[in-house]
Structures are given as C-alpha cells and as structure tokens.
Amino acid sequence: MSMDFLKQLGLFVVFVLIQTMVLGRIHLFDYATPLLYVYFVAMFPRNYPKWAILLWSFALGLTIDIFSNTPGLAAASLTLIGAIQPYFFELFVPRDSVVDLRPSIRNIGMLKYTYYIFPLVVLYCLVFFSLEAFNFFNWVDILKSVCGSAFITLVLIMTFESVSGSKA
C-alpha cells in the first residue's frame, strides 16, 4: 500500500466523520447546509489518475449518502465533480508547472483558486439540490438552498485553505 493511498484514506475518513457527525446537522435558516466534503474532490493533484478520482468521489458520495439518508444524491453529484475536476483544474495551471501540483491558494494564488473552487462548489450544490427536489416547482427554495449552501461551503473551504497555507 502506498503512502498516497493511506493519506487519501485518512482524509476520506476525516471528511466523512466531519460531515456526518457535525456539518450534516447544521441547517442555517433551513436552507444553508455546509457540504465540506466537496473539498476532498477538489484537492486531487494534477495528473492524478482520472479513474481513481472517480472511484474516490463515488465512494465518498456513497458513504455520505449512507450516513445522511440521501439515497444517491451525494454519490451522483460528487461523481460529476470528480469527472470534471481534472479537466477544470488544467485551466488554471501553467503548462510548465510541476506534474503533481495540488490545487491550493499557496500553489496557484488566491484569485485563480477562487475561480477554480467557486464553480465546482456551485455546480455540486446545484446538482445536489436539484436532484433532491426532483422538480422545479419550488425553484426559489432550490435557489436559496444552492446559494446558501454554496456560500457557507466556500467560506469553510477558504478558511481551511488560508489556515493551511499560512502554516506551510
């Protein structure tokens, strides 16, 4: 077993525990729920095998679904994010950068990181809450959930990035 696999497995367990034990129970104003586990998929480095990203994404989503009683919502949404993450990250990385570059504020800068993480989180929230509602009759409620959850998730991700960037 490689150290990379064990590190990913440790992060996987940490994100599942944080989401299911703490963040999954927070519903601000009945619309905003922090969905921090999206950060796990967004952190995969450049040139990480695409099949592995899909497997990790699906496994994390399925595990979150099992513990949160959301049948297939997180799995489908995270698998979509896992499928586009490698291609989307390439848009923000110079061609001559290192092969195993991780997306972070320290590595690509605050502005590029914000442009990288914002669409991923918003797309995840949009797909997740659209699948949850499974109709567009209450589109105002879906929009409130997407905006509120995306905002609080982005605040948490940027906080973690700022703290981890200042230590390294």
Q: What would a concise description of this structure say?
A:
With about 170 residues, the chain is mainly α.
* Low-confidence regions: none
User: Mean pLDDT across all residues, rounded?
Assistant: 89
Distance between the termini: 26 Å
Major β-sheet profile: none
Q: Structural class of the helix and strand makeup? A: mainly alpha
How many beta-strand segments?
A: 0
Helicity level, as a percent range? over 70%
Q: Strand percentage, roughly?
A: under 5%
Strand-helix topology:
Blueprint: H1 3-21, H2 38-42, H3 50-68, H4 73-90, H5 105-108, H6 110-133, H7 139-167
Helix pairs in contact: 1-3, 3-4, 4-6, 6-7
Structure in words:
This protein is mainly α. The protein has 7 helices and no strands.
Could you name the key traits of this structure?
168 residues, mainly alpha, 7 helices, 70% helix, globular
